[in-house]
Each structure stands twice: as structure tokens, then as C-alpha cells.
Amino acid sequence: MDPCRKADLHQQSFRGKAASKIVIGPGCVEVPEFYEGLDSPVEVKEELVKDGKLSVALRCQRFRQFSYEEAEGPQKVFGQLWDLCCQWLKPERHSKEQILELVILEQFLMILPLEMQKWVREQCPETGNKAVALAEDFFQRLPQEEQRVSMDHFHVGHPSRAQAMPKIEPLIKVHTGEKPYRCSDCGQSFRYRPQLVIHEGTHKEEKPYKCSDCGESFSQTRHLVIHKWTHTGERPHQCAVCSKSFNQKSDLITHTRTHTGEKPYCAECGKCFTYSSHLTTHKRTHTGEKPYQCPDCGKCFISSSHFTTHKRTHTGEKPYQCTYCGNSFIQRSQLAKHERSHTGEKPYMCSECGQSFRSFNLSRHQKIHVKGKL
């Protein structure tokens, strides 16, 4: 057989080796040495060789067939997957780093030993770096003798090569903004399946830490500690400029912007926002994106808060109760407005004459000044 059609690639580990190149026959295709991991011998079919380069099919095959045993430890496994995926997807031409990382994260989790995979998945890592750190942490917790055991003794979690592999979502989704994966619990949509899987874990996670004051439950002790400060009044994070205190560091960071003048702004219209989350929601007014869809009526919403409020129209839930008369309301703003009927508070002051009003009455009053200037 023509040496350009067949390569005797001997199986061997490429731990620690650079991706040096070997030549299949004189003047033929150069193949990276790590393709030695393919079954030997491998017939290099004509359709796999185009213009002196490995075809997309072969690059994809190598990425898909990579297994945990081919490298030493989680860090090197992830690094090898990164290199193989770069050769396959050509992110410098077709994609972005975030898309590449999602594909690698899915494959990385898939090929971890089952014991390690289960533990890492339970932590819901959002990036490859987090997944690697979790896998390394799991590995370090093992006794030294278990770390030295051959990986053949583990139940490796990747599918066999005969099984159908999940398809990679088309790159066109990056450009169209299509988000076909929708959460059945809250209606939020995602572009890629791994994003949905990670998100769904936030609905299913256990919340064993319960507040003894109000009964609210939390998934982590630190969240419970922060919550308890709302009852005790403790505010450990103090502003160095004005000494105002906050119970969460994120609130302090937001507050410091009132001193520095820094505000995230919209590149489309220039509007500024104190909170980055508000900017994210605002950007959707330009794109028309409404990622939160009600499973009951199909109506879509621009933000999760609007969606949460809407759901109460179906459930009848009215969580905000007036302490004066016991009436309940769907929104906090409705409660605040109602309570002013009991307190007589008029927080909105006219800038022209200084008279105070409730919000609706202020708008009506200001028309008097406008007419007087005409």
C-alpha cells in the first residue's frame, strides 16, 4: 500500500511530550505525534487528507477519542483537550474562547473517573479552571496509595467509541443569538446544553442551612451567615471614605462608585448604571432579547425579577403583607405605596415649590408649573 495511505502509528503515551511532527511517507502529510493514541495501524484515507493537512473529520475524531488515561492528572488532561480542540475548531477563525471552553468543559467532565466526575459535577463548575481545581482537590484528598493506583482500576466515565457522541452546537448560534435550551423551572434560556445543566443545578441543590429567625434556607453556611446579619443589624464592610457600613462586600463595592463616579455604561446609548446587573438587563432593550419565558402562558420577560413577579399572577402568591391592616401584595413597590395611606408619608418633593406629594400626585402637580411657564 502507498505509504501516503497508511501509517503505522504505534500506541504509546505522550505524557510530557511536545506535539512534534512525524512524516507519513516522503513528501506526504505531517501528523502531530499525539495522534499515536489512535488504534494502530491507522489507514489514512484519502477523504481525511486535503491540501496536505489533516481533515476536520480526523481532528474531531482525535478530540472525541481522547481518554483520561492518556495524560497524567487532571491538569494535563485538560491541557491536552485544549490543544486538540484548538486544532479541531480553529477558534481563531470560527469561534470565541468562551465557546471553546464550554466544549472542553463538557468533554473534560465526561472523561473523568466516575467517582471524581460525580463529585466535580455536584459542585457545578462554570469554567474549565474551576473544574480542574475541583478535580485536583478531589485527587489530593485521596490517600497516597490510591493516587498511585493505575487508572485502569477506576470506572472511567467516558462513553465507548461505539456509542453516539453528543453533537457540538453549530457555531452559527454565536452570531444569531439563538438560545434553544430552556430551563423548565424558571424559563431562562441558554445557548449551550452545558450552561443549562449547570443552571438547573441551582434549582435542585439542597438547602440544609435554615435561619432560626425567619425559616429561610440556604445551600451554603456563608449565605446563612450573611443573611443573619439582616436580623442582627451587623454590617462588617465599612466604606473608607464616608464610614457607611454594609452587610455584604458587593454592596460596599457598589456604594464606592458613588464616591468615584464610576458607573458601567451602555455602549449603545451611553446610559449609565450603578449596578452591572441593571446594565445587563438594559442591554436587552436594544437587542430585544427576552430570555425568561413563562411556562404557563408563554409570555416572555426581559429580567428574572419581572418574570418572578409575573408568575405570582398564576399562583396567586402575595408575599408582601401590610403590617397595619394585613392586606397582601404581589410586589414590594405596591406594598410601599399602600403603606403610605396609613403613614401619610409624602416622599416626593416638587423641585419648583417644595411641596410634597405621593408619586402620582407629584406628576399631576408639576403640570401646573409647566402651564405657568408657557
Automatic annotation (TrEMBL):
<dbReference type="GO" id="GO:0001227">
    <property type="term" value="F:DNA-binding transcription repressor activity, RNA polymerase II-specific"/>
</dbReference>
<dbReference type="GO" id="GO:0043565">
    <property type="term" value="F:sequence-specific DNA binding"/>
</dbReference>
<feature type="domain" description="SCAN box">
    <location>
        <begin position="61"/>
        <end position="138"/>
    </location>
</feature>
<feature type="domain" description="C2H2-type">
    <location>
        <begin position="209"/>
        <end position="236"/>
    </location>
</feature>
<feature type="domain" description="C2H2-type">
    <location>
        <begin position="292"/>
        <end position="319"/>
    </location>
</feature>
<dbReference type="Pfam" id="PF00096">
    <property type="entry name" value="zf-C2H2"/>
</dbReference>
<feature type="domain" description="C2H2-type">
    <location>
        <begin position="264"/>
        <end position="291"/>
    </location>
</feature>
<dbReference type="GO" id="GO:0008270">
    <property type="term" value="F:zinc ion binding"/>
</dbReference>
<dbReference type="InterPro" id="IPR036236">
    <property type="entry name" value="Znf_C2H2_sf"/>
</dbReference>
<dbReference type="InterPro" id="IPR013087">
    <property type="entry name" value="Znf_C2H2_type"/>
</dbReference>
<feature type="domain" description="C2H2-type">
    <location>
        <begin position="348"/>
        <end position="374"/>
    </location>
</feature>
<comment type="similarity">
    <text>Belongs to the krueppel C2H2-type zinc-finger protein family.</text>
</comment>
<keyword id="KW-0804">Transcription</keyword>
<keyword id="KW-0805">Transcription regulation</keyword>
<dbReference type="Pfam" id="PF02023">
    <property type="entry name" value="SCAN"/>
</dbReference>
<feature type="domain" description="C2H2-type">
    <location>
        <begin position="181"/>
        <end position="208"/>
    </location>
</feature>
<feature type="domain" description="C2H2-type">
    <location>
        <begin position="237"/>
        <end position="264"/>
    </location>
</feature>
<dbReference type="GO" id="GO:0005654">
    <property type="term" value="C:nucleoplasm"/>
</dbReference>
<dbReference type="InterPro" id="IPR038269">
    <property type="entry name" value="SCAN_sf"/>
</dbReference>
<keyword id="KW-0863">Zinc-finger</keyword>
<protein>
    <submittedName>
        <fullName>Uncharacterized protein</fullName>
    </submittedName>
</protein>
<keyword id="KW-0862">Zinc</keyword>
<keyword id="KW-0539">Nucleus</keyword>
<keyword id="KW-0677">Repeat</keyword>
<dbReference type="InterPro" id="IPR003309">
    <property type="entry name" value="SCAN_dom"/>
</dbReference>
<keyword id="KW-0479">Metal-binding</keyword>
<dbReference type="InterPro" id="IPR050331">
    <property type="entry name" value="Zinc_finger"/>
</dbReference>
<feature type="domain" description="C2H2-type">
    <location>
        <begin position="320"/>
        <end position="347"/>
    </location>
</feature>
